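quick one, 102 residues, struct below
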Amino acid sequence: MRSPASTLLLLALSGCCTAPWVRFPEKTPPDRSCTTGSAVQGTDVYIWECLRGQKVVVSQYSAEMTCQSATREVLACGARSTLEADPSLDCHGPRAGFAWVP
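---
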């Protein structure tokens, strides 16, 4: 039988995260979906070039057994985010299962 502390530890390490489209809901699909990493781990990046007068960049790191909370960066339309400066960013669509859900 597991102790309550070990059960809580397992739950904390299981990587239960809120999807970025739930944390930052947008009905308009992003202009670009990009990734860093591989098919099993990486940062998923969703970019709206000019949404309601602002550039919006939502990103979330996830791996097989863990993930981080999604983040949202708001910039001036036409500005370049720090994520877009990453040379490993691949903007040929999201990883399988990570397309934006309006």
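Confidence is low (pLDDT under 50) at residues 5-14.
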